[in-house]
Amino acid sequence: MDGYFSDDSAIRRIGRESVLMLGGPRALLMQAAHPLVAAGIVDHSRYGEEPWRRLARTMAALYTIVFGTQAEGDRMGAITQAAHRSVRGSRDRRAYSAADPDLMLWVHSTLVDTGLALYELYVRRLEPAEAEEFYDQMQVVAHVFGVPDDVHPTTLAAFRSYQRDLIESGTVRVGDDARAVAATVLSPPVPLPFRPALRLLAAQTAGLLPAELREQYGIRRPVPGAAGSMRRLIPLLPAQLRRTERLPLRLLTAFAGL
């Protein structure tokens, strides 16, 4: 095994479904719901001009760690950590830094949560042991990205409580910066022929946000029946479209410029 994970690992079995890539808008909006994470996005990225390219970079780095060799994964981790070193500033007299373990954990948690949410909605329900294994293995991904090992909740149940507590306490709450990010994610500045499809995709996956955040963003629930239709369609797709480690990942990496 020359990668961090074996082919039969939960993280590869779950992550190889390319439908999970549709979760990028959801993950980004969930990240931006933390005011200090949103401040970093607004102050230190070209989110307004290239919101989907930013998503592509994140997803390409994630999937390279999961499916690539350790050397390829480490390269992506190093690129990400280097980019984050200069992400620091303040908002409303509160300092933020991309190296803050609490902020790093929140960003990582949105990738875990989105992966599980989309897989269970569009593919199938996971057995508890499968979901727990996925959660444990995502901590390896976090380590490569530079997240300290000792900040993670010990179990998936504790992780769920961690996310719920941050949302219910108002620590994670949609503010002006998050709404600015949402405006570009939900209505991306792309050529006119692509706008309807990308807007529909973004709205559909963003509608899977936790109810409190969805309401704060003013996003509607997903179109009824869409998940069932997708679940029936996925088994019929050819492997080169369905499997992340094939064509979709190569296209994503090329689009991201990595």
Provide an overview of this structure.
The chain is mostly helical and 258 residues long. The chain has one domain. Helices cover 63% and strands 3% of the residues. The protein contains 14 helices and 2 strands; from the N terminus they run H-H-H-H-H-E-E-H-H-H-H-H-H-H-H-H. Strands 1-2 form a two-stranded antiparallel ribbon. Strand 1 and strand 2 form a beta hairpin. Helix 3 packs across helix 9. The chain is globular. It starts with 9 loop residues before the first helix and ends with a helix. The model has no long low-confidence stretch (mean pLDDT 84).
Secondary structure: number of strands: 2
Q: Can you count the helices?
A: 14
Strand content: under 5%
Low-confidence stretches: none
Biggest pleated-sheet summary: 2 strands, antiparallel
Task: Based on the model shown, name its key terms.
two-stranded antiparallel ribbon, mainly alpha, 3% strand, 258 residues, single chain
Please give a quick description of this structure:
The chain is mainly alpha-helical and 258 residues long. It is built from 14 helices and 2 strands, in the order H-H-H-H-H-E-E-H-H-H-H-H-H-H-H-H.
Summarize the topology.
Elements: H1 10-15, H2 24-32, H3 35-44, H4 51-67, H5 70-84, E1 88-91, E2 94-97, H6 101-122, H7 128-145, H8 156-169, H9 176-186, H10 195-206, H11 211-217, H12 226-233, H13 239-242, H14 247-256
Antiparallel strand pairs: 1-2
Helix pairs in contact: 2-6, 2-9, 2-10, 3-9, 4-5, 4-14, 6-7
